[in-house]
Specification:
The complex is a heterodimer of chains A (282) and B (281). Chain A is an all-alpha fold and 282 residues long. Chain A is built from 13 helices and no strands. Chain A has one domain (50-281): Orthogonal Bundle (MetI-like fold), CATH 1.10.3720. Chain A has helices at 3-24, 41-48, 50-82, 88-100, 103-113, 120-127, 143-172, 176-183, 188-216, 220-225, 237-247, 251-258, 262-281. Chain B has helices at 2-37, 41-44, 61-69, 72-103, 106-119, 124-137, 145-150, 152-168, 184-195, 197-213, 216-221, 230-237, 246-275; strands at 239-240, 243-244. The longest helix of chain B has 36 residues, at 2-37. Classes of the chains: A mainly alpha (282), B mainly alpha (281).
Chain lengths: 282, 281
């Protein structure tokens, strides 16, 4: 009874993946029906292009920075949310908004907040006399600020997701262990670092694995906020693949670029399988 | 005793501060959408005005523009249609597959299950280039049918994974009803499906929200304004040339996000259970 589903998955995930690999070694373009194999020519030319080097570096930098910030913030937030208080359901809903709302719409909301002229952040900073009127930086117009903005929006989107996963993990910790520690005289911080966080380790790793995939393979945030600019300073592998493969009609170069996502995906799949296997043994 | 009371007070203050800071940071963009939705343009585009308050009377102009002079309503309809069709296709493919895999004994059932879960990790940004050509070859380019065809490729794997969990919790003895003259299929549709209503409902909501959130495929396959989904239509087509109509743009973001967020939020705990299957018990 599972053959129709398997057939569908093979046809729409397996076959396109094989096609992507074929295109990467070919000269396929939008508009010309056939293609010829050209060996590793595409890889040679993209590896030399400054845009690709920037994209590869940014993809790694954005993913790593976002994950570090997300883990710290969502650990704190999940502990704060686990304690019962009045209005917890509503607070949880507000905190979850960035994750449950469509990301393209959240990103355009940020584009308005970071607007070059009407940014509310600029207004507050001018009001607080940090900048003189009209002398504040353009948040999405300067390379380093644009990179920081992309990381910020990724964190904004992922913190709710990681928090909920960690909450699930926190509630699964048997309550008698931290209580026993408290009776034995361990304070809040000691209980946190020596009992709660180590016990949360497996669930934190699940959150990190999913978070890595979501950041590393995402092109929506970059495409909407900066379209890779200014000067490729926020270009990532997926956004560059789109710019070359679809907007630039060079399917082969786009496919070759997106294939650089695969090693990371394989690594993540490996760690997920290991986590699942461990849970099974335990 | 006074010392302990004071300590408790500090703990409460810290707890409140942490929550308040995060709520403000995470929910602020949505509050900001709400403010822009009702602000007059001369108020919105004046850097001298305090942006946090209404310096002029609130207005409904942005909403009127959005609903009567843009493709927004059409995009909503497109999204709803694609959503419903993808939900049906997903159920038809995932229900029997999940049931069969949950009942398949031995290592093979488990292996196929894990393989299906791993396909969920393959991102659209890896497949959109070859799929754009497949869609063009099938003559589906620039129509929502391209999305109806492709979207189940990411909704089916996760739905199978979610449903497997539900089916595994149904005792096998129920299947023994087959001995009483019911075939495999009859036992499945008359006994197992009714018990799994909550699992099926979860899949329905999950699939529908994923469809509304997708961006890459919709951006790649479809160019005409009239065929857009909300997720692409709003950020791309509410901008004319280089001019952003921020008021109606923010209104569209808010009006579209809130119902999806409410729906997703209601079922969130079950999705998380699906995400973390295996990692916690």
């Amino acid at each position: 009874m599972f053959s129709p589903a398997i057939a569908y998955i093979v046809l729409l995930i397996g076959a396109p993946f094989a096609l992507a690999v074929m295109y990467a070694f070919s000269d396929a373009r939008i508009g010309s029906p056939g293609f010829h194999f050209v060996g590793i020519e595409n890889f040679r030319s993209i590896l030399q292009s400054p845009s690709f080097q920037a994209a590869l570096r940014n993809s790694v930098v954005f993913t790593v920075c976002a994950q570090i910030i997300v883990i710290v913030c969502s650990t704190i937030l999940s502990i704060a949310l686990e304690k019962p208080f009045r209005g917890r359901r509503f607070v949880r809903f507000l905190i979850l908004l960035p994750w449950v709302a469509p990301i393209s719409l959240g990103a355009i909301g940020w584009k308005w907040i970071l607007d070059s002229i009407y940014s509310v952040i600029t207004w507050v900073l001018v009001w607080a006399h940090v900048f003189k009127p009209y002398s504040a930086p353009m948040w999405l117009g300067e390379p380093h600020l644009a990179m920081a903005s992309v990381i910020l929006v990724h964190c904004w989107r992922l913190i709710p997701f990681s928090t909920v996963i960690m909450l699930a993990g926190l509630t699964a910790i048997p309550k008698d262990i931290p209580e026993a520690a408290a009776i034995d005289g361990a304070g809040f911080w000691r209980t946190l670092f020596q009992i709660n966080i180590p016990m949360m380790a497996p669930i934190i790793s699940v959150a990190v694995l999913f978070g890595t995939i979501f950041t590393f393979t995402d092109m929506t945030v970059v495409y909407i906020l900066t379209a890779g600019g200014p000067f490729d300073s926020t270009q990532t592998l997926p956004s560059l693949a789109f710019a070359m493969g679809i907007q630039g009609s060079d399917l082969a170069a786009g496919a070759a670029t997106s294939l650089f996502l695969v090693p990371v995906l394989i690594l993540i799949a490996y760690f997920m399988l290991r986590a699942a296997h461990r849970a099974e043994v335990a | 005793m006074a010392g302990r009371d004071q300590q408790r007070l500090w703990a409460r203050a810290l707890h409140f501060t942490v929550l308040a800071v995060f709520v403000v940071l995470l929910a602020f963009p949505f509050y900001w959408m709400l403010v822009a939705t009702f602000k007059q343009n001369i108020d919105l585009y004046n850097v001298e005005n305090n942006p946090f308050i209404f310096n002029l009377r609130p207005t409904l102009d942005h909403l009127k523009l959005l609903f009567f002079e843009t493709g927004y309503v059409r995009w909503l309809a497109n999204t709803a249609l694609v959503g419903v069709l993808v939900v049906f296709i997903t159920l038809i493919l995932a229900l029997p597959a999940a049931y069969a895999l949950a009942r398949l004994t031995g290592r093979w059932g488990q292996r196929i299950g894990i393989a299906i879960f791993l396909t969920y990790l393959v991102p659209p940004t890896l497949l959109f280039i070859p799929l754009s050509r497949v869609v063009a070859l099938l003559g589906l380019q620039d129509t929502i049918w391209s999305l109806v065809l492709v979207y189940p490729s990411f909704t089916v794997p996760f739905s199978i994974w979610l449903l497997m969990g539900f089916f595994k919790s149904i005792p096998r003895e129920l299947d023994a009803a087959m001995v009483d003259g019911l075939t495999h299929f009859e036992a499945f549709y008359k006994l197992v499906v009714p018990i799994s209503v909550s699992g099926i409902l979860t899949v329905v909501i999950f699939t529908f929200t994923l469809v509304t959130q997708e961006f890459v495929y919709a951006l790649t396959f479809i160019s005409p304004e009239s065929q857009q989904m909300v997720g692409v239509g709003i950020p791309i087509f509410l901008v004319r040339g280089d001019v952003y109509f921020w008021g109606s743009l923010m209104a569209a973001c808010l009006i579209t996000s809130l119902p999806i967020a409410l729906l997703y939020n209601t079922f969130l705990d079950r999705f998380i259970a699906g995400f973390t299957v295996g990692a916690i018990k």
